[in-house]
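Quick one, T. Sequence first:
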Amino acid sequence: MHSHSDASETMDSDMDGVGDNADAFPQDATETIDSDMDGVGDNSDVFPQDAN
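Structure tokens:
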């Protein structure tokens, strides 16, 4: 769940260098993006552009 109350991105819960507002996985330092929005981060997703 994203924290939208931190406009300056000072919160980085997983300390991966990406602020929680912009991080699709704010509690997982190994993932930051989910391009196909299937709930699996791009680093772990075999097909990161295909939600099926």
